[in-house]
Amino acid sequence: MTTFPVVFESNGTLLTGRVHRRTEDLLERQPAVLVTGSWLTVKEQMADLYAAELAARGYTAITFDFAGFGESAGESRQFELPTRKIADMVAAARFASSLSFVRPGALGYVGVCASAQYALAAVAAGAPIASFAGVAGWFHDTESVAPFYGGLDGVRMRLDRATAALDVLRRDGTVVTVPAYEVGNDRAGMFFEMDYYSNPARGAVTAWPNEMAEASWLPWLTFDGLSPAAAVTAPSLFVHSDGCVFPEHIEQLRSRLRGPVEVAWGEGTQTDFYDQPAQVSFAVEALDTHFTKTLPA
Question: What is the model's pTM?
């Protein structure tokens, strides 16, 4: 296995990524797959794990940090802006398509958790992605996401906090941050027990700052991750389970998508699919089968 860094621009912002290949021969053209993880995360978490597994199967797997996160440039930092992330995905797809060691037209996308809904929107926006896959995909709109935050009252409370944080940002450029994960803290992005984000052997890696710009609630809670499906014709795969978030949304997406759709239904919880061997192996097997059939030979 060989890895090396890459850089590319998205709307004038320099993004940093990493290429994963099982060969050092840059003359060998391979199908490529972009891989991104959940909201508020960096590439060293679930994305790099899936990239390594796919690279071992003969894909050029590319991970990257979104603008404002990890090693990438961009202000404001730790700001979960769906439209900015979607634009970054479009830029990443165009960049990957320009690489001489990538097979022309053979670019797939794997979105784990929340980045799956952004990637679907990027495909709908015209990103040169020939095949899409979501692993434990989080696809929400305000109605469906509200119960995670105590209903509409909880949504309004967070929108008020986000508005105040945005006022501070506009006034003096200060980004008001809260923990991305902290059990019992209702200001945190994730406030219920999840071992993945508290365990250094799993997702609590040193590259992850565990911060969220509090203004993120404004775009996050009002984003519609379901509607873009109606504009997507690319072959799609959903790796999911009853223990993952919004299992009922998978059937909704299947009915809205305009291209061929496959579903690989497994077992396990949402965060099991981030890094647990059984769930990752199940997902990678399904991904390999899907991309073998849908990326040009």
Answer: 0.97
